[in-house]
Amino acid sequence: MEKRPTSHDVAHLAGVSQSTVSFVFTGRPGISEATREKVLRAASELHYRPNLAARSMRTQRTGRLAVVVPIATMNPLTLLAGAIAAAREEGYVVEVVSLPDDAEERLDRLTEVVESGQYEGVLAFTPLPFTDTTGGGPIVLSVGEFDDAMHMTGEFTDSRPIAEMIERLAAYGHRRFIHLAGAEDFPSARARRDAYLSTIDRLGLESLGVTDGDWSGKAGEDAIDALPDDAPPLAVIAANDVIATGAIRAATRRGWKLPQDVAVTGWDDHHQSAFLVPSLTSVSQDRERLGAYSMHRLVAAVRGGEPPEKPDGLLTIVWRESTESPL
After folding, report:
1. Where is pLDDT greater, at 152 or 246?
2. Pairwise CA distance, residues 47 & 274, whole Å
3. What integer pLDDT is reported at residue 239 of this predicted model?
4. Spatial CA neighbour of 220 closest among 193, 247, 255
């Protein structure tokens, strides 16, 4: 059987002392970032994981972190992937803890997690009734990327890409627009609607309105079916890729050519969007990088270190055939 790598093996590969390896994995201050990265790189290469039980007895640290999410959603999967990967890079084991929908039961479960003594830190992408604890308890960090209903409320309500897409389409010669909005109870939908209206007004463009609806393809179909025959040339700003897909289907069925008669944009950059005919211009959201950033914030708080810099470019417009210049 292959021998399990030890901290001595990591120290030898990294060219540091064994105590330095220990300091890195226990979060002791005074270790330079270059040294810490060298140790973590060596540990990753050797597939080394610290002995959590022994560490806990020596330092009162468990080497464990928790991420809490409501059970009713699958939205934060990429956030979780980024958070878990970042924690492992730092030498921690992560457990994902599901929270009940009922508010009272949720509070009981949170209290149980925080007071269990199993975790050095707890990361939540949803609002919590308490934050950083004192008196020897774990650090609790709520980054607020979703509300209680798991509607996006944090970084991804940034609606600036809407303005950028409209500006570019206007530069292509488009003067008539319509916004196919998502469900009104989503903060992200309201932010995109507001960005649409303000940009249309700022640029002096014509708007055929903002349609109410949900996030379905049928909502996109219905909105385009309801337009008059002389609506084109037209630019459609859809609140997500599914709505945009319905809009493309309805426009094609009416005999309108894309992008010559109708240009369409989406949001989310779903995997299939690049393979539609025409391929769909959309906004890509780097949720994995946001998850990693959130976890690095928690680790820094647990270790008493400096928080990481906020990453740039979490939202990127991917320009494709559905908005090619008609000129």
Report:
1. 246
2. 36
3. 93
4. 247
Q: Backbone phi, then psi, for 322, in 5-degree steps? A: -70, -10
9 token code pair = 């093996």
- pLDDT digits 0-9 by tens, 185-217: 788 888 899 999 999 999 999 999 999 888 899
Nearest to 76 by CA among 316, 301, 294: 294
Which residues is 140 bridged to in the sheet?
Answer: 122
Residues ≥6 apart with Cβ < 8 Å to 73: 146, 150
Tell me how far apart the alpha carbons of residues 23 and 34 are, in angstroms, rounded to a whole number: 14
Is residue 266 exposed (0-12), middle (13-18) or buried (19+ Cβ within 10 Å)?
buried
Domains of the chain from N-terminus onward: 7-57 (1.10.260.40), 62-150+288-313 (3.40.50.2300), 155-285 (3.40.50.2300)
